[in-house]
Design brief:
Elements (H helix, E strand, L loop, with lengths): L6 E2 L14 E6 L5 H12 L5 E6 L4 H13 L7 E4 L4 H6 L8 H8 L4 H6 L1 E2 L2 E2 L2 E7 L1 E5 H7 L9 H11 L2 E3 L6 H13 L5 E3 L9 E2 L4 H14 L13 H9 L3 E6 L3 H11 L10 E4 L14 E8 L6 H11 L2 H11 L12 H6 L3 H10 L9 H11 L10 H13 L6
Parallel strand pairs: 1-3, 2-3, 2-4, 9-12
Antiparallel strand pairs: 4-14, 5-6, 7-14, 8-12, 8-13, 10-11
Helix pairs in contact: 6-7, 8-9, 16-17
Length: about 425
Amino acid sequence: MAGAFVLASTLTACGGEGGGANVLNWYINPDSGGQAEIAARCSEQSNGAYTITVSQLPRDSPAQREQLVRRLAANDSSIDLMSLDPPYIPEFAQAGFLAPVPDDVAERTSEDVVQSAIDGATWDDELVTIPFWANTQLLWYRNSVVEAAGLDMSQPVTWDQLIQAAQDQDVILSAQGRRSESLVVWLNALIESAGGSIIQENSPEDPTGIEFGLTTEAADRAAEVMNAVATSGVVGPAFSTSSEDTSATEFEGEQGGFQVNWPFVWPRALAGVEAGTLDESLPDDIGWALYPRVNEDEETAPPYGGINIGIGAFSENVDAAFEAAECIVSEENQAYYFITNGNPASKASVYDDPEVLEVFPMADTIRESLELAAPRPQTPYYSEVSGALQREYHPPSSVGPQTGEQAQALIEAVLAGEQLL
């Protein structure tokens, strides 16, 4: 990869050597080299104002959080920039780990940004991180299947319709049923699409004051849909351990029919065709639409993911770090990252880029989905909330009217210090 960047094989020690005043350390999640290339580009464009070095965090998102929290709790000044998974942003902000975003920077970096990315970068009504790339799940379908099923994909479809179509056509409906963060992604989208929220009222200072929405009609309806999918007879044979990759593999197979998944499935399918492992007719048989509705008369609320840029509160180069962050999230760099690494942009205008549209013909649908998407529950106690949800809502085939009540009781006990996960 061209340019002046350093990829650290190991993270420096707390308060480690950051080099000169113009050296910025950017802690990144693993990707296909895109962030390192952007670091090199911005370093060159700064004309000596700063040089960005990158250090790679673990692949697993919770492990990324753990490593950064441990370092920032020790007031580590070597962390200038960090790529943050949105669910953990409230925790970092509440703990004072993030440098406040200046008003002018917040104004510039939130302009033309899709709503879900703004929501995910915000805590306590303040933009606390810089939106970088934004991800969402679409409904992917086989054109041949929906034609045979008589589904009109120009109109919104529901989970119930997909189950029926998959049963009628004897194809697989793929979702993520394993006990992991992907299960919370699915659950949150179902509850939000039913008009509810996992957290109805936040209480940043007092975890016992959080008001949950897991015993509402919306949560009950979401549980009903989750169970209906899991027990439909049209999911894969190991649904309770099914991941995003599992779903993509099932969809590419002979029984593939429908899947909810992130946009990576499109370049993955093209790469399979190019490698000769998938039939060359597959791409023409793939269609896409907005995430399924839970209720016919209620707008869908698709999953939201991605990465935002946080500036370390203990950095000795905060001003330069914010300047670098603005370069990192520029329209040009977001388009580059979308095209080369497959990570959708947070800036809406990027979706009009002809090169983006050539690589991702479903770019308009991704942008529309991101405007409707809902972040996972925003709370400084997200790890505890997510862990409890994974425990109670797994396996999905066991989910029923009692699950929300059990999950809510567990979360409240954990947050009150009365129980461990």
